[in-house]
Amino acid sequence: MRVFSVVGPSSAGKSSLVEALVGLDGAVGKVLDVPGVAKVTSFGFMGEDWAAIDIAGGTENIAPVGPVLAASDAVVLCVPADAEGAVLAAPYLRMIEEAEVPAIIFVNKTDAPVSRMSETVSALQTYSRHHIVLREVPIRNGEEIVGVVDLVSERAWKFHDGEPSTLMEIPEAVRAREQEARAEMLESYADFDDALLEEIIEDQKVMPSEVYEVASKTLQHHDLVPAFIGSAEHRNGVNRLMKALRHEAPDVSVAAGRLDGGAVAVSALADMVKHLGKTVLVRALSGPVSGGATLGGDNVGSITDLDARTGLGTLAPGAIGLTVKSDHLAAGHMYSDKANDPLPDWAQPHPSAFRRIVTPVHEKDDSRLSTALERMGEIDPGLSVSQDEKSGNPVLATQGPLHLRRVMAKLKDDFGIEVEEGTVPPGLRETIRRGTEVHHRHRKQSGGAGQFADVVVELRPEARGSGFTFTETVKGGAVPRNYIPSVEAGARDALVEGPNGFPVVDVSVELKDGKSHSVDSSDFAFRTAGKNAIKEALAEVGTVLLQPIMKVDIHVPSVFSGALVPIVSGMKGQVLGFEGHPTAAGWDVFQTLLPMTAEDDLFNALGSATRGTAWFTTQFDHYQEARKEELADLI
Question: What is the pTM of this model?
């Protein structure tokens, strides 16, 4: 079996394309539907077994693309005939480049083209380091595309609505364009084949069989990206695309070679199915995968076909199936018999930047929620879960609001847990501007042994980012040495929550003097004294709020970089600059310092300003004192 994936922006016609491809021979097999994520269909074509994986479009569905590419022999990038919309394909082209998976572009919707084919391909070339070579040129009747000329075989095909194309003579008006395009195609292929280059230099006739051989070699090595044209909705051009996949796409050994470490199998998708549990779509790569056998360090429960009902027993190399009752398996991993490893970096999702705190609607679900989220993380590589430092509630980081709604719906439908979502409180801190000295005596007598501790401490502000330091200058044993660590512990206790309810940072505490009692003094008494002394000092000098400032790297198509300057400035951010990405064609890395509280605004603004193509990573940089006008929004 050979497997290919179909990716592309929303409304590119991917589902129509897959439907047309799998129906060419009428031998449609089993179907796996992961709602909102992907649809997998097995089918037969010219006596061979195939499977197509249709990934839902949109930037919030980028996370499954990497694992699916890892399991694919080839990928079809489906785009509309629209040069201005080519930027929407940029995230997919970038992932394809990084994965080095053999790729074919299908320029769809030629029944209603917005741009000429050459313009669309030229616009796509901006985002590909590998040359895109046009394999067909359109035959037009006025502005309507009525057929194509195959540049390899130099045969013309006439389109029929919903029917197979038929051979026709190459129209005289197309011959000059066909000859020009064929010469460009041959020159591109000749860069990777010396014999073909020699024939072109000597002006010899190049036979189609030679070109097909070179085309197959360059596709399998991901040296070039061929582009085909057609209309999936009208079943035009899809047969040529499928034949190109059949003749030029590699077998499973190439997919296995892209993964270091000799992986036996790879997991592409996963889902949680009622009454069945976790199911994982696995493709066998370099060896068979059998139910009951060891994979990833544990036994596989059972293996079924895509319908999750028909037992398969064993997957031969190249075949796909669902593992059931195999809790140790998860989406986005590669497996040997004993090892269970995450896929390479190129298959990992973009950092999930849309963060929301979630709480169960019903208190009884509080303890079940963490378990459910752990299970969700095993089937959804785009989901990450952390914990709010103050409330302890889970914080979900997703690819966007639609992804979040899908996660919440799954929690309700599959786990019976309803949750509410809200904004994540900013990770604020407090600090002081001036210091003070405090004398505090802790005394308690209520029968029996009492409590006594007397301390003199000085609280001082320190440089931003210095954290907390404790020193002591006690003389003459006024405070016994064994009690000094207790005073430090008490000071730390007091700094956990300042007057405004946030941790206090960038301060130092010096224990200068004190007294003890031979009977009533204890570690507890001095810890209490230290804590109360610092609380008194904080109340006396007052605190100011610090907000976290993040270092943000925005990955953005170069055409949108300039538009980010006013956006970031409007969020009180500091633009550090931007430069071209070292390996991703047509991309910039835009760097800025931005308050953490502006991350949601940045997420939304990027969606609008870059048509959903940009994404960003963040890391903490420093704390900065909040302005007075910001205080109301922060607390």
Answer: 0.89
